[in-house]
Amino acid sequence: MDTPHPLRKHGAFFWDKLLLPQPLFEERCKRLQEAIVAAGDDGWILYGDADRSGDLVWLSHYLPPVRWGAAVVLRQGPPVLVAALDPEDASVAATQTWIAEVRPAGEFAAALAAVLNDRKLLGKRVGTVGVVDGVTARDWDALREQVPNVRFEQRDAAMRPLRPARQLAERNAVRRAGNVVERGFEIARHVFRAGVPMIQCTALIDRELRKGAAEDVRILVAAGEQTGNQLAPPDERVLRNGETVLLYVAAQVQRYWVEAAQTLVLGAIPPAVRELSNRAWRAVVQMEANARPGAKVADVAVAGRNAIGSGGTHWDTATRYGLGHGIGLDGEEPPFVSVDSTETIERETVLALRVVFHAGTLGAIAGGTYVIQPRESVPLVDHPPLVEYTS
Amino acid sequence: VIDGVVEVAAELRARAERVRAALRGRNLGTLILFEPAQHAPARCDSVFYLTDLRTLGGAMLLVPVRGEPTLVLAPVWDRARATAAAGVGEAVAVPRAQLAPRAAELARKLPQPIALAGRALMRAPELTQLLGGLAGEPADGEDIVPPMAALRSPFELERLTRAAAIADIGFNVVRQLARPGMREYELAAEVDAVMQGEGAEDNAGWLASGPVVSLRPPSDRRLERGDKIVATIAPMVRGYVAQLSRTFVLGPLNEAQRRASLQLAKLHALRLRGIGPGARVDGAATPLARGMTIVVDSSREVPGIGLLACADTVVVDDGGCRPLGATPPELFWGEA
């Protein structure tokens, strides 16, 4: 879900080596090098920035807090990490990654051209991952100008099968992120009060998540008449008795994202809100029940549509936000849950599923993150979809 | 009340009119301004300057020489918030992939020729889509808005002053809550929460402790007695960021630190005295003018002590400059 991007990521930045040990990354690098060989390339560039960095993080664990980073990987041998940093900050970056060679860089093109030259990739074929859609046009043009005899091939599609979290360590990391988000919803039951500005309430949720070692926290809300219109970043609007609050929370912990959503009412739940919330939750449950390894993603969306009811306001608002998508090292990643999808769900896919309704002056939201397994999926955030809040 | 909607709307109308005047002066028909989803505190956000809206998924603002601006933005569900923003006449909300094609489609119907600002921020696919959809290569419009945005209006100064006050509060949280055993990120979480509660919508700051060689995001390091905590605190209030950088020692200052604190205060005062209308900071091409706001950074490495952070956001006025915050420029300490 689109949320306000932070000016700088300013949460907990460290590498928990007990949770994600170095051999995990070495094994990933080996698989990546096999993919490079299979593609017939001589090396790959994996790019990431503060907006989107899943591919880079998957290999390196380095999360650019600002600007960008890129890893250059050859068919064999250790990779090199180039990070947009001042030279005195390179040692700090080195604590975030297993990659031994970290090069601080200013300009993207000059730095990457130097690495391609050092690694003897001039005149060779180099795959790009996250580069074409991530680097600015100016930087991308400048790189191609500086190394005109390198043949670049876009390899985003070849990278994707490597990403699902299949190893125990990865699943544990995802669970930890889920636990942090869950704690946010436990706190949410106590922080929303009439007479208090929304931003003061969400500040307490944000604090809880960051104290749980979140690197990044994203919160969207709607309250009162806003619930009939749209979600928005928290502002200074003062909450009132009887209001409904729609709460969406996402957090990144040790690079893994998890999200969930809940409807809260400051007082007794009006029947119309209960009905709306139930319908949203039923749709999430139906989508989750149909999301199994081998299932078509489109069928998951159809299950949601059947629960929501096609046509009309509910389906319209739900699809405006999207019914869900993969989630992990990026906040949004394939597959995207849509009736038009042609994709299939794989085992251990982590899916964020959500339904948002805006109807007249009312609204409801429900959602969670699930690890897809053959018999039943595993919810990562255990939270009730609808909460009646009485102080 | 931090600012009146009427005052902001009137100011934004005046800004749009200044852009139109600039277009007329260059015989241009329409200016397209691009802003990506990833905002940056050190860059002029021209779309925000003209709309008072911090967009979520990227935006293109079309300002024609005649008529109201149109904002094309993502995501598709963010239209109501955009429409309510003081500086937005018409908002067209689209999926992110449709941003450039839709903006190009709308721009073709507006007065020609077109100028483009924000080109260097565009990724290859969206630049290709935009250029492919326009009638011809757009003129360079990069320098139209930034000079206008360099001077702060009263409501902008009000927001910045509030941001600076919140930064003071944030640093006080460091002074009050830092304890041995606490992790850096836990302290940073407390700072963030208090500042959010005061109205900060983001914080472009970092906090680090121990033998700090540079500013960095908070880690899992546990604070220890005698630690130096270097904090850059940069809350954003309604789109405006004020920066405060200071150093806090967890325990009493030693003699070397006391001397360094006095020297730092003198150095900072000296630097502030050099700021005023007509002055050029760090060799900048543009001299300072009354109404500009800048960060004066006197942070320095002191042998044997390490980095001492000291930076303030100041407004340039007739008498020189005035810090917007109230935290004294010294090395702080507290009993562990």
Summarize this structure briefly.
Chain A has 391 residues and is α/β, with parallel strands linked by helices.
What can you see in these coordinates?
The complex is a heterodimer of chains A (391) and B (336). The longest helix of chain A is centred in the middle third of the chain and has 24 residues, at 168-191. In chain A, helix 4 (108-118) runs parallel beside helix 5 and helix 9 (271-290) runs antiparallel to helix 10 (297-308). Helix content of chain A is 35%, strand content 25%. Chain A has 391 residues and is of the alpha/beta class. In chain A, the strands form three sheets. Chain A has a six-stranded mixed beta sheet, sandwiched between helices. In chain B, helix 3 links the parallel strand 3 (70-73) and strand 4. Chain B is built from nine helices and 18 strands. Chain B is α+β, with helices and mostly antiparallel strands. Classes of the chains: A alpha/beta (391), B alpha+beta (336). The interface between A and B is large, with 59 and 58 residues.
How big a fraction of the residues of chain A is strand?
Answer: 15-25%
Number of β-strand runs of chain B: 18
Give the helix/strand class of chain A. alpha/beta
Span between N and C termini of chain A?
31 Å
Strand order of the largest sheet of chain A: 4-3-2-1-5-6
Task: Using the CA coordinates, give the radius of gyration of chain B.
Answer: 22 Å
Ordered list of secondary-structure elements with their pairings:
The complex is a heterodimer of chains A (391) and B (336).
Chain A: H1 22-39, E1 43-49, H2 54-60, E2 68-74, E3 80-84, H3 90-94, E4 101-105, H4 108-118, E5 125-129, H5 137-146, E6 151-154, H6 156-159, H7 168-191, H8 198-211, E7 214-223, E8 244-253, E9 256-266, H9 271-290, H10 297-308, H11 312-321, E10 324-326, E11 333-336, E12 350-359, E13 362-371, E14 378-379, E15 386-389
Parallel strand pairs in A: 1-5, 3-4, 5-6, 9-15
Antiparallel strand pairs in A: 1-2, 2-3, 7-8, 8-9, 10-11, 10-12, 12-13, 13-14
Helix pairs in contact in A: 4-5, 7-8, 9-10
Chain B: H1 5-25, E1 30-35, H2 46-51, E2 59-64, E3 70-73, H3 79-84, E4 90-93, H4 99-108, E5 114-117, H5 124-133, E6 139-140, H6 145-149, H7 154-177, H8 184-197, E7 202-203, E8 206-209, E9 228-233, E10 235-237, E11 240-241, E12 244-250, H9 255-273, E13 293-297, E14 300-302, E15 306-308, E16 311-317, E17 320-323, E18 332-334
Parallel strand pairs in B: 1-5, 3-4, 5-6, 12-18
Antiparallel strand pairs in B: 1-2, 2-3, 7-10, 8-9, 9-12, 10-11, 13-16, 14-15, 16-17
Helix pairs in contact in B: 4-5, 7-8
